[in-house]
Amino acid sequence: MEFRHLGRSGLIVSQLAFGNWLTRSSPGGEETEIACVRAALDAGITTFDTADVYADAHAEESLGRALKGERREGLEILTKVFAPVGPGRNDMGLSRKHIRESIANSLRRLGTDHVDVYQAHRFDLSTPLEETMEALADVVHSGKAHYIGVSEWTADQIRQGHSLARELKIPLVSNQPQYSALWRVPEAEVIPACEELGVGQIVWSPLAQGVLTGKYLPGGTWPEGSRATDANDGSAELAAWLTDDVLSRVRQLGPIAAEGGLTAAQLSLAWVLQNPNVCAAVLGASRPEQITDNVKAVGIRLEGEVMDRIDSVLGPVVNRDPAVTVESSPPSPGWRLA
Fold it and tell me: Where does residue 83 fall: left (phi above 0), alpha (psi -120 to 50 degrees), or beta otherwise?
């Protein structure tokens, strides 16, 4: 494993992080997650990402149990707040009330007295940003989080939040956007703003929900037990990628990867980690061996000619539209995290 500073902070994270959004909901449940967490630890992964809303709060609980007995100072635990966690009007968002209640519940479920990074899961259009940042400052100043981060905020929202964070003397150090060789939405605006501010990226879906592994072939027949065949395992996220055009182009990455002694998944992870503003890529897994295989992407340096070939193959099907990040801000209290 190799490590990077998170933005311009002093916090060091593993270049691959284990995320349990889908793992906790996959067949096998907590038993599978514990095996995957063990594989992650054995591979040198020290950074673990979750959220209060994942698996109806059970993800935090099971991650806490899986990490029980590990030296807390040797881990970086990240969780998030925003999405609905109950039926009440105040059971979502970034109000002072919800943030204070949510951090207490997250720490209880995780079995720890602090998290390393507490992340605002989306931007809250219905709460004054000043209220949100002051509440997050309370979390940091009380010792319940060392740093704060955001997820899927626009460049302007990150700038505003970062400015308030500096006034409140708290470190806003990270953003968690979707980012992969197929999804380059953050490149136009978000990543340049973060580079300027010293904010690092902890990216999710670096394998485009498994599409970049090459396991989905053109023709519409999906591997049994894959996410595309399981309505409870994130299949809705795959819909845009499961077209013959996209899948035919992804297949062309196989020979490029093989030339470097890599799998398509390892090539795609190495592509993400090539970006100097990416501090960590969040990996999910339904089997421990997926973790073991994917960590081999760490330390791989792709030559410019290889990067150009990847661009040439995927270019026509890449999403680069920064407006998509704006659309991720929930428009109403009825919004639910996908």
Answer: beta
* Residues classed as catalytic: 54
What is the maximal distance between C-alpha atoms in the chain? 55
For tokens 């501010």, what's the residue? 197
Distances (CA, A) of 250 to 130, 206, 253, 312: 44, 14, 5, 11
**Among 117, 127, 118, 60, which residue's Cα sits nearest to residue 93?**
127
Mean pLDDT, residues 162-176 taken together: 98
Residue 281 zone, left/alpha/beta (φ > 0; ψ -120 to 50; rest): beta
Q: Which of 242, 265, 201, 267 lies closest to 47, judged by CA?
A: 201
Q: Are 74 and 87 in contact (CB under 8 A)?
A: no
The model's pTM: 0.93
User: Rounded to a whole number, what is the distance in angstroms from the first to the last CA of the chain?
Assistant: 31
Helices marked H in 43-182 — which ranges? 58-67, 96-110, 129-141, 155-167
Stated as kind and residue range, the H or E segment containing 148 is: strand 145-150
Residue 133 has a pLDDT of: 98
Which pLDDT does position 32 carry in this prediction? Answer: 86
Burial of 132 (0-12, 13-18, 19+ CB in 10 A): buried
Instruction: Convert the pLDDT of each residue in 200-238 to its tens digit.
Output: 999 999 999 999 999 989 887 766 655 655 655 555 667
What is the mean pLDDT of the segment spanning 319-335?
A: 74
Average pLDDT of 123-129?
95
Question: Whose structure tokens read 């539209």?
Answer: 321
Q: What is the distance between the alpha carbons of residues 158 and 161, in angstroms, rounded to a whole number?
A: 5
The single-letter code of the amino acid at 108 is R
